[in-house]
Amino acid sequence: MAGSDLTLDEARQRANLAFIASGVEFAFGDAAALPLPVAALRALTPDSAGVEAVHDGGLTAEVLCLHQGGRRWAVKRTRAECRVRNRDGETSFLNELHRHAELAALRAQGAALPGIVAPVYGSLRGGLVVSPWIPGRHPEELDERQARTLLQAGCALIEHGFFEWDYSAGNLLDDGERLWLYDLGYCYRFDPLTQFNSAGHGRDAPQHHLAERIEGRHLFGALLDAPSDAALAAFVGFKQAAVRAYEGLHDRLAAHGANSAVLDHYAGLAAGWRQALAQSPQRLYLLDGWRAHASDLHDDLRGRSCTPRTLRRARWLQQALIDQADLLRAGGALSVDEAGLDDATLLRLYREHEAEAARHQL
Questions:
Q1: Where are the alpha helices (DSSP H) in the chain?
Q2: What is the total count of domains within the chain?
Q3: Are 192 and 103 in contact (CB under 8 A)?
Q4: Hey, is 72 helix, strand or coil?
């Protein structure tokens, strides 16, 4: 088969682009459960009766809060053009519809998926995903409850074969009891019993995992605004929660027959964090901070979807290189390509990244 050598990313992108090009509809759920007909939902404006708020900061869609029939609804409507300028951005809405349909089928079979929003309806042609409104706020620094419930949600996805890449604050809501993930545009399928994630062929990029995704897309960005002592305390609390989550995930995957590579992956991460937290949490903060900021900076540059926080990440990386280059190198925080550059060249590279991020501000 010609596509047998494709990576998971390439196969997914080809299939999604072909589906979109076909013009075929994809929908899930029950349109009869909607507060208004699909056409009326698409025609809503900020001044329409019942529209209480409009949240238009998303890169793929806007979300309206609609009060209708005695309850509130989140009406997510796609943008005419996604602000993320790559294939995954172009196909993110279709991908989200697929994931919600698959998760709905799992729920119907009794699967527990805590903290993952459950829409009542979604349509590709209609450009809609409609869900019960979740009253809450976007998180900032993660406290113990927030970290625990978000990791719980991410582990549940992994156990059912879904790897979520984008835990940015804009995709999360805190209702006072738990964190909810309500955007699945960058949630992809993989085999959790044999693979680490949905990148490459599934085991090509072990550096990307649940806790790393949360740290890169959200936590370290939020900690840019925290005093150093508070930032370290929040990081340590999150890492302790991640250790417990990974140990539990390891045991559950083992019970389902995961192979030794997967089990060793999670066990090794948890054990390494336990040791690092006991010996030098400040060192772990620096090394993981470098990885998180560098990863998110490169993500934003690839998608040409940069924000003022992207610029702050670039400056953090430059300052860390100026202050702690030897420790970053000794700790293995630099990528293979970066490790081959001298400090001056690497610093110049990140200054160029900052300039590029400034050109691609949303």
A1: 8-22, 38-42, 87-90, 92-108, 144-159, 210-214, 220-223, 228-255, 260-279, 281-303, 308-330, 336-339, 343-359
A2: 2
A3: no
A4: strand
Closest CA to 182 of 145, 219, 137: 137
Whole-model pTM? Answer: 0.95
pLDDT for 1: 38
Q: Which amino acid makes up residue 44?
A: L
Report the DSSP beta bridge partners of residue 316: none
- Site of tokens 């999670």: 266
Q: Please say which residue of 91, 114, 133 terminates a domain.
A: 133
CA distance 195 to 258: 9
Residue 128, beta-bridge partner list = 77, 123
Helix axes 260-279, 228-255, angle to 10 degrees: 150
Neighbours of 9 (CB within 10 A): 16
Beta-carbon contacts of residue 17 (< 8 Å; ≥ 6 apart): 87, 90, 91
Q: What is the pLDDT of residues 220-247, one digit of tens each?
A: 999 999 999 999 999 999 999 999 999 9
Task: List 61's β-bridge partners, or say none.
Answer: 78
- Per the domain annotation, does 352 fall within a domain? yes
Structural domain ending residue among the three candidates 70, 99, 133: 133
Flag whether 322 is in a domain.
Answer: yes
Six-digit token pair at 83?
């602000």
The CA distance from 56 to 212, in Å, is 27
| Of 136, 160, 8, 126, the residue nearest 72 (C-alpha) | 136
Contact assessment for residue 11 and residue 199, using Cβ atoms and an 8 Å cutoff: no
236 inside domain = no
For residue 4, what pLDDT is reported?
A: 63
pLDDT of 209: 99
Long-range CB pairs of 35-43 (<8 Å, 24+ gap) are 35/66, 35/68, 35/69, 35/71, 35/73, 35/130, 36/66, 36/68, 38/123, 38/126, 38/128, 41/66, 41/75, 41/77, 41/126, 41/128, 41/130, 42/77, 42/126, 42/127, 42/128
Structural domain harbouring 352 = 280-359
Contact 65, 134 (CB under 8 A): no
Which segments of the chain have a pLDDT < 70?
Answer: 1-4
